[in-house]
Amino acid sequence: MPDPVFLAVDLGAESGRVIAGRFTPPTSEASGEGGTVALEEVHRFPNGPVAIPGPDGALSLRWDLPALWKEIVIGLTKAGTRYSGEVVSIGVDTWGVDYVLLSETGEALGLPWNYRDARTENAFDEAFADVPREEIFAGTGIQFLPFNSLYQLRATRRDHPELLAAATRLVLMPDWFHRCLCGSEAVEFTNATTTQLVDPKTRDWNRDLIAKLDLPDRIFGPIAAPGTELGTLFPSLSQQTGLPESVKIVAPATHDTGSAVAAAPTERTGHADWAYISSGTWSLVGIETQGPVLGEQALAANVTNEGGVDGTNRLLKNVMGLWLVQGVRRSFARGGDDLDYAELTRRAAAAEGLVSLIDPDDPRFLAPTDMAAEIVGYCRETGQPEPEDIAAMVRCCLDSLALRYAAVLETLADLTGERPQVVHVMGGGCRNGLLNQLTANACGVPVLAGPVEATALGNVLMQMRAAFEIDSLAELRAVVRRSEEVTRFEPNADDDWAAAKTRLRKLSDRA
Which residues are catalytic? Predict the structure, then answer.
């Protein structure tokens, strides 16, 4: 019999893909090997927000659900042709926080907002007027970011109360696609935690907080654990894609970072002596703990406690990530200098390092119309040399990211009392060898880069777990170590890095 195939629908903020994971089981129990998994890209497509004018002409950023669904079906149809009856299950993961409101009959109430939309600019002041910041953190353990679902829902209540009045259910982005596949309206746990509305201790909706924020309790339905079987493929989709009706729909860790961390090739589970960076448009910099880290020190550090697999907790901070480089690329492309990321990295490697620095998390970089102009303006305002060309600008971004990663890991070490001895960099950003080396230099510990498709791999692994008797997260990670190679970067730090850390700290304090 052919080895079983699992399909991961992995949607990122810049692109989406349908990836097949083929599991090769051990040849025998006596072999001592627990099987391997190999990934194959079936379909890839671009993604990004769509700017739609409202009645007053003001633009709002939305996600194009029909376009995304069309691409997913194309990918599943290709898989139906390529793998015939070998497919066991399908699971979807996406970014966090964004949601779809459903009507009483299950229809989507409009196109969901993109988290970079400006409607949440004054979100904190409005929410804290009803519930103090300290109480929100104590009841959720989540980092204060203006685009969290909590503040998006408050903006919807303010600007479009008719939508909340008509809504009977809230589902997050991956949950909506699961609904399209099999009819489920469950919200998966790891992504639910990104809403800033889940109690980290009970691991369920914080109904008391929801009431105090004047949000409708009825829209918050059941939360499903990662690995839950949600149903089977609709017959209509079986006919459309060629996949069997027996194909199961399984919720992986639907938050892309949750899936990526599940695929970390570490031998340690639930320990703070190793760190991860899920590197892509965003960089999620964190450690894995056995429970939430709360209290005044955690609140002051503005860390987040997101749900993980097998009861683990992801203690982390969001860092702006390669969005900075993507924005610089777009800025120069408009002027005719359109370079791919490999060339941008090559030029940045040849540029002098640690000349100008930015605070990657400064709000001005969240959704600028011209990233390059914002970086030049930031350097000018802070008395630093203005990057003169694209090489200097990309080097500025990468140096600043590496230093920000190091600062976050120092904060997490202070909170847990345990300092990471190695950093696993996973996701598309791990292809950037320059950034990996700079990160090792800034953090002062080895960086292990890989796997590249960590999110899709984690998605597939959780589906495998639902299909076979795989006992633990540790066993899943053993499959990763057997299946994927990693590249090691040793630190090469000097006094310049120590001085640069102080410079970045001052810039962050300024903000």
Answer: 256
Is the CB of residue 139 less than 8 Å from the CB of residue 209?
A: yes
Question: Is the CB of residue 445 less than 8 Å from the CB of residue 418?
Answer: no
Structure letter (DSSP) for residue 94: B
Q: What is the pLDDT of residues 407-450, one digit of tens each?
A: 999 999 999 999 999 999 999 999 999 999 999 999 999 999 99
171: left (phi over 0), alpha (psi -120 to 50) or beta: beta
Rounded distance, CA 280 to CA 297, Å? 28
- Give buried/exposed letters for 396-408 (b at 16+ CB in 10 A, else e): bbbbbbbbbbbbb
The third-level CATH classification (topology) of the domain covering 5-250 is Nucleotidyltransferase; domain 5 (3.30.420)
User: Which structure tokens are listed for 240?
Assistant: 């459309």
Considering the four listed CATH numbers 3.30.420.40, 3.40.50.150, 3.65.10.10, 3.20.20.60, the one that applies to the domain covering 264-450+486-511 is 3.30.420.40
Statement: the pTM of the whole predicted model exceeds 0.70:
yes
Give the chain's end-to-end CA distance (angstroms, integer): 60
Contact of 148 with 194, CB cutoff 8 Å: yes
CB 448 within 8 A of CB 267: no
